[in-house]
Design a protein that fits this description.
Structural class: alpha/beta
Helix content: 25-40%
Mean pLDDT: 88
Largest sheet: 3 strands, parallel
Number of strands: 7
Strand order of the largest sheet: 4-3-7
Low-confidence stretches: 158-166
Shape: globular
Strand content: 15-25%
Radius of gyration: 17 Å
Number of helices: 6
Order of helices and strands: HHEEHHEHEEEEH
Distance between the termini: 33 Å
Length: 166
């Protein structure tokens, strides 16, 4: 569906990318078919093709921020940001960033978690692209979006915040 909707139907890069991703049955628990992208990262051409597909799609969309969700968003996000002329903003797990941060809590299918971002990392009016490895329940993606929007509001209001829980 994605390939047809985005002009990629029949693109040979997609088959090579798919073949480069190792499927690990029953990891991290019974019934899960884990898509291991570390094998994709070992294949220079498949890794480059993956980044190129993102770059081709977002290059001319006025994206000024690529936000990568820890940790897999850190593998693809910086390369995409460089190629489209955007800055990279890491969205990290709690207590991993030094300095002043804002945070956003979210619910996972198996518990809760939190993302943090440096205060001032995003500015009002910037357009952001969020990079993560998958969307299961949408909780992480929603938290990332809320965090980016809140970060832009803080800058707009010219106030600082020592942390926020969503």
């Amino acid at each position: 569906m994605f390939a047809a909707e985005n002009g990629l139907k029949g693109d040979p890069r997609l088959q090579a990318i798919s073949e480069a991703i190792r499927v690990v049955p029953h990891f991290p628990k019974q019934g899960i078919m884990f898509q291991d992208i570390t094998t994709l990262l070992l294949d220079h051409k498949a890794f480059k093709d993956t980044v190129d597909i993102f770059v081709d799609r977002y290059r001319d969309m006025g994206i000024s921020v690529v936000a990568g969700v820890e940790a897999r968003g850190f593998m693809f996000g910086p390369s995409i940001a460089l190629a489209i002329g955007a800055k990279f903003v890491p969205l990290r797990k709690p207590r991993k960033l030094p300095g002043e941060v804002i945070s956003e809590a979210y619910v996972l299918e198996y518990g809760t978690d939190c993302l943090e971002m440096h205060v001032g990392a995003v500015q009002p009016g910037e357009r952001a692209l969020v990079i993560d490895d998958l969307v299961a329940t949408g909780g992480t993606l929603s938290a990332a979006i809320r965090l980016l929007v809140y970060g832009m509001q803080i800058c707009c209001l010219s106030r600082t915040c020592g942390g926020r829980s969503g």
